[in-house]
Amino acid sequence: MFNRTTELKSKHPCPVCTRRKVKCDRMIPCGNCRKRGQDSECIKLSKVITTSSSKEYLPDLLLFWQNYEYWITNIGLYKTKSNDLNRIPSTLGRDIEECRFWMNYLERDQSFQLMNFAMENLGALYFGSIGDISELYLRVEQYWSRRQDEKYSVDSRYWDALIWSVFTMCIYYMPVEKLSEIFSVYPLQEQLGSDKELSWGDSLQSIMFKNFARCTLLQLKECDFMAHADIRFIQSYLILATTTFSYEEPLLANSLLTQCIHIFKSFHVDDFRPLLNDDPVESIAKVTLGRIFYRLCGCDYLQSGPRKPIELHTEVSSLLQHAAYLQDLPNVDVYREENSTEVLHWKIMSLDRDLDQYLNKASKPPLKTLDAIKRELDILQYKVDSLEEDSRSSHSKFEKFIAVFQTSTVSWKLFKMYLIYYDTSDSLPKVIHYSKVIIGLIVKNFQMEIDFFNRHPMVLQTVTRAVSFMCFYQIFIESKAIQELLIDLTELTANLPPIFGSKLDKLVYLIERFNKLKQLWDNIRLSDSGDSFHHPVFKILQNDVKIIELKNNEMFSLIKGLGSLVPLNRLREESLLGEEDEESTESREFRDIVEDFQSEYSITNILS
Asked: Where's the Zn(2)-C6 fungal-type domain (predicted)?
C-alpha cells in the first residue's frame, strides 16, 4: 500500500516556465518541459519548492496537534474504557472468594515487611495523606488481631482498607527480586490455573498488584461507604492513585473520586484554615486536611476529561492570578519556603493546568500568559532545587525526583506551546533540551538502582506526550536532532517498567503507527487541490480525533431501555472509515489508501 503514487502537481509554476515567462500547467514535470526535453531540470528545480512546502503548513499542523494530543494521548490512551454491557459479569460470591484467597495469601510477617518498604522508600507518595505515620504499624497489628477474633466494625473496616491500600502500593513499586524474597510462588499456581510452573516476574507482579487493589476495594465496599462516609475513604483512594489504578480503571476511578469530593463537601473538610482559637489537635488535623485537599485536587485535575464532568480542582484559582500581586510588593520574598511539599506540587501542577487548558480550544494563549508561566516556573524551580535530599533516604530522593520531573514536564509543555503558537527562535531547541532532561532523569534512576521511581504514573504520561509529539513532528519535517532524540525516546519507552502493562503496549503501538504514517507521507504524492491538508496522512489523523471523540460521547450503552428513541447506528465508527461523503472531492484511490491504513492500524487499538 505504501508504493502507490499519483501524479504530482505543484502550487507554483515551475522555475523553467517562470524564467521563460510562459504559462505552466504546474505538473511535475510540466507539459512545456516534457515537450522541450527538460524533464530532469524541471523535476530537479521543482523539488526545492516541493520539499519546502511542508514548512508552509507546519503552523497549521502544530495547531492541529493540540487537538490531537488532547484526544489521543490524553483521553484515548488513558481515560477511555469501553462500557460493555454484553459481557458476562463475575458473581459477587466469586469475587469475594478470590479476594479472600489473596487476603489469606498475605501473612503477618509479610505485611510488616511491606510496611517497612513503604516507610523506607515510598513516604513521598503517601506521608501527606496520613496524620500519624507511626500509627500504621499499630493498625497492622490490630488488623491481625481482628483476623483472629473475626470482630469487625465499620471503623475497623476503614482501617483495613487503608492499610491494604498501602500494601497495594508496595506490591506495585517493590522490585520483583525483593518481592520474590518475601512471597512464595507455590500457592499461586493452583489459584491462577496455570499449567506451567510459575516463577516470579513482571507479569506475576502485575497480577498480584491488581488483585491487591481488588482486595482494597472490597474492604471499602464492606465499610458501606455510601452510608458511612469517612476521611479514610479519601486517604485510601489517594494512595491507590499513586499507582496506575486510575489508568487501568478510569470509569471506576472517576466514581471513587466523585465520592471523595462528596465527602469533602458534605463534611466541610475543605475548610482547613487555621484559627487563633484552634487547639493543638485541631491545628494538626487542619494541616493534614490541607495536604489531603491539595493531593485530591491533583488527582482530580489529572483525571479530568469528557467523562468526568464533576471537578474539584477548579475551585483553586490559577497561580498566575497572584503573580502580579507578589511582583508589586518588593518586600515579599517570592522564594519563601512552601508550607508543605503538597502545596509545592500543586503549584507546579496548576501551571501544567494553565498550559493544558489550551489543548482542546481554538483560542490562542496570549504571549504574556506564557511569559508569566515561565516566570512562575523559574521561581518554583528554585524552590525545587532547594529541597534537601538525604543520600541515605529513598524517601527524600523520591520526593526530589517527583518535584524535578514535574517542573521538567511543565517546562517541556511550555516551550512546546511557544513553538506551536509563536515559533520563537529558542522554542524547538528548548523542547529538545527538556526532552533530554526528562530522559536523563529516568536513566539516572536506572543507574542509581532506584528504578522503581520510574513506576510513578506521571513518568508514563510524560514520555507518552514527548515521544508522540516528536513522532508527529518528524512525519512532516526532517530534522537530525529530532531523529536522534526519537531514537533515545523509543529506546527509553522499550525499557520502561513492565508494571505499566497494557498502557505501555499501547504506547509502543502508537509509536509504530506514527512510523507507518511517516512512510505513508514519504511515499504517497497527490495532486494539489488548493488545500494544504490534502493528503491521506492528514485525513487519517483527523479521523483519529473524530473516532476517539465519538467514543467518549457515545451514550447508547447506558440508555438501551429507550429503544427506538435512540438511533443506535447514528455514530458508527464505520461512517468515518468507509462511507463516501457526497460532497467529498477525494478520489477513490485516496479513500482506499485511508481505509486500508485505518483497517490495518486502527486507532481504537489504543483503547482499554
From this structure: 13-44
Structure-block grid coordinates of residue 172: 506495585
69 CB-near residues (< 8 Å, 6+ apart) = 359, 465, 468, 469
The position carrying cell 482494597 is 216
Task: Give residue 51's pLDDT band: very low, low, confident or very high (50, 70, 90).
Answer: very low
Q: How many residues does the chain have?
A: 608
Q: CA-based angle 272:278:283, to the nearest 5? A: 55
Query: If you search the block for the grid coordinates 499499630, which residue do you land on?
Result: 138
Cell of 414: 511550555
Residue whose C-alpha is closest to residue 30's, from 55, 10, 49: 10
Count other Cβ atoms within 10 Å, centred on residue 453. Answer: 25
pLDDT on residue 441: 97
**Eight-class DSSP state of 500:** G
Residue 470 CA to residue 175 CA, distance in Å, equals 31
- Among candidates 75, 109, 174, which has minimal Cα distance to 552? 75
Tell me: pLDDT of 316 over 70: yes
Cell of 102: 489473596
Which amino acid is located at 161 in the chain?
A
pLDDT over 70 (residue 329): no
Check if the beta carbon of residue 238 is closer than 8 Å to that of residue 292.
Answer: yes
- The three cell numbers locating residue 111: 505485611
263-271: long-range contacts at Cβ-Cβ below 8 A with a sequence spacing of 24 or more? 263/229, 263/230, 263/231, 263/233, 263/234, 264/234, 264/293, 264/296, 264/312, 266/229, 267/229, 267/231, 269/231, 269/293, 270/315
User: Model's pTM, two decimal places?
Assistant: 0.86
The residue ranking higher by pLDDT, 577 or 205, is: 205
Contacts of 419 (CB under 8 A, 6+ apart): 62, 427, 428, 431
* C-beta of residue 157 within 8 angstroms of C-beta of residue 223: yes
Cell matching residue 45: 528545480
Q: DSSP assignment, residue 12?
A: S
What CA–CA distance (Å, rounded) separates 580 from 586?
A: 9
Q: Is the pLDDT of residue 364 over 70?
A: yes
Are 77 and 460 spatial neighbours (Cβ–Cβ below 8 Å)?
Answer: no
Cell numbers at 443, concatenated: 536513566
pLDDT tens-digit series, residues 225-264: 888 999 999 999 999 999 999 999 999 999 999 999 999 8
Q: Is the pLDDT of residue 341 over 80?
A: yes
- Residue 119 buriedness (CB in 10 A; 0-12 / 13-18 / 19+): middle
